[in-house]
Amino acid sequence: MEKFTHLNKAVFPVAGLGTRFLPATKAQPKEMLPVVDKPLIQYAVEEAYAAGIRHMIFVTGRNKRAIEDHFDTAYELENELEVAGKLALLSMVRSMQPADMSFSFVRQPRSLGLGHAVLCAEHMVGNEPFAVLLADDLMVGPPGGQPVLAQMAEQFKTLQQSILAVQEVPLEQTRRYGIVAGEKFGLGSGPQLIKVSAFVEKPAPEVAPSRMAVAGRYILTPAVFKHIRSQKPGVGGELQLTDGIASLMLKESVYAFEYAGKRYDCGSKEGFLEATVELALQHTEVGAYFKRFLKNLKLD
Prior knowledge:
Number of helices: 11
Low-confidence stretches: none
Structural class: alpha/beta
Shape: globular
Mean pLDDT: 90
Radius of gyration: 20 Å
Helix content: 25-40%
Distance between the termini: 60 Å
Strand content: 15-25%
Number of strands: 13
């Protein structure tokens, strides 16, 4: 088995239309919707950076230019902040693109599924392991602990095989997720590793092999590309990443990691509101005020 020395690249599939948030997403990417004071995509990029990743690859579509602009240098803004003496804000703006971080952008010309989006980045990833982060899933590590992708990267150093982030969901929700089954091992009472033996996309509760659902974080070996390409397109000509991973399992071991932390499904309005409230309460600037505000609300 090839020894991978470092996880350095992350792929962010951001070409989706965000129809569940219309009209807010009519003219702006859903990934740019702010949770308190940062857009969803920035949370995901910061998580990747904390895991040691330095090359961020965005798979974009039409009307996604705002994402590229967000991570670009804003000379006029920086000059205005510097002249005004707003040095704390200037430092914050510059911190979004550390000197050792690089960005690449590639278009997904048609919406042909998550697997197709990952294939669009193949020429940039090359023969290296890589992470995939879905910005809709805002992942927060435990208080004082590692971010979720950093936890997974630690496991990858030892396993050297593909790893999927998973969480246990209620049985009635299995039809909303990819579900894995397998044998847990190795990590005692903390986060659990599972050697995956079955991977089923959105099964009905009565046939689901478990309640372990795949969340929006993956670390994949480069072999997955050929397995995605080998799949027959499904409804609408889409290629599914889950089908490619299921095929990869026939050649390589794939692991699921029951991470420590919390996932907010910010692809839904309910999850987006939950994230906004909980992260606002934790915010150093507005948390205390917001807590008082919520306590004084008269709720029926």
